[in-house]
Sequence to fold (497 residues):
Amino acid sequence: MSDPNTRRQPLSPRARRGLLGALLVLLPLAPAELQRGRARTSPRVATLSAEEAASVLRALRTHVPEELASALESPTFATQWVEWARRHDARIRARLVRGEEDSLVNFLLFGTSFTRHPRVTVKDVEALAHRAMTEQELSERVGQLLRGRLEDLLTALAAPGRNERLLFLEQLLRRQGYDPRSATDRPRLRAYVLLLLARALQEQRALAHAAREAERIATPAEEFLLRSTLYRTRGLSLDTSLWPNFALEEALKALHARGHLPARSVRTVAVIGPGLDFTDKQEGFDVYPIQTLQPFALVDVLRRLELADASALRVYALDLSERVIEHLRRARQRAQRGLGYTIHLPLDPEIPWRPEALSFWERFGTAIGTPTTPVRVPPELASLRRRAIRVHPDVVRSVIPVNANIVLQHVELPAHQQFDLIIATNIFVYYDTVEQSLAMKNIERMLRPGGFLLSNNALPELPVTRLRSIGYSTTVYSDRPKDGDHIVWYQRLADDR
Fold:
């Protein structure tokens, strides 16, 4: 998932006004008629008990939902907790739809598989904004770009063929009550997409303002804390990125150097929210098939650093989205037939990458696969640097997908199989303090004593939870402002502490 702490380069005020102005030109096209059991997985997933939840809520004292706070000391709390957890699980999972809508917006702006119109990237809009033109002219130019791309997208959605991103979005739109293949439904669908785009721009503006305020009034530590819940009301995005895996590699190196992670000590690990590389918020690409990165990146890093025995390592991929779970299931099924999994690694050469980041990109995948031919790109992306890795089938088979909501649920494992390491990057930023605190209790249940959680968010450390931060590492990706990650190291204390 994507994170506001890094990578997303906000539009300047003038460029943002140009993009919003373009929307005002396009929105009159919207008609008035716009108003309008997941499968069980193995291993067993359990909901946090009422007793454990109550201990967390009592320790928090503030921000506890009123319906739980009023029942906390009641003999009926256990019943009310089960009902609240059921409803809240549904509320959290419902946010996946908004996340998929955000992916649709990114696809509209950055995709090249459905159109020959130029991409509407931050870089492109900023270039237009810096030219000698009025704001009205800027809005008209951006509006032309958006209008052309939107019409091409609607045409492509009406005949998606085998384009898996278009098929993905067609499913989303049908669930929302639209028929992309119906000509008569096209005006409603056009209006819906435009309103999604307007919402995304307004959210970006609000988040950019909140981030600036946090930077202005807080110390660096306080700013990091404030940013760690910045997306708590947004949709849950599936999109993912390569670069947090570089920060994780640096964190694991540091933990090993300090003696916390001996060689070949990691046997069982979990990735919370591996996500899918659809078309991410950092001007993503759609020239290659949808892919997931982090489970395989983690295996690659652990093998290269010799922190895990390749033959014994197991990776559990915990995600809310059945789309992610099904993607990994299909990959495992292909691996059972001896087929590998291809990861594509595009790199924008115009970004001023740090040498260490370039080195990571160049060595990624060397411990889990072999180089293969990168996908062809359209002429407008000819300068893009590309690598592709064919991941070995045995690595794919070692990844076990599990549908779980980390706020409320955990995987139940025997003590000798509990996780040595759990990673969660760009995940907890989507949750508030109460949700993060409940998640920390679930993580405690899954980690062995002495095991580690690595996250690029600052998380609550309650006295009733046996997770404590013992350090952090900072990794910078490029010379762009705030393009990097802080990885906080949390360790699970022994049960008698």
Q: What stands out?
A: Residues 2-7, 28-41 have pLDDT under 50 and may be disordered. The first strand starts at residue 45 and ends at 47.
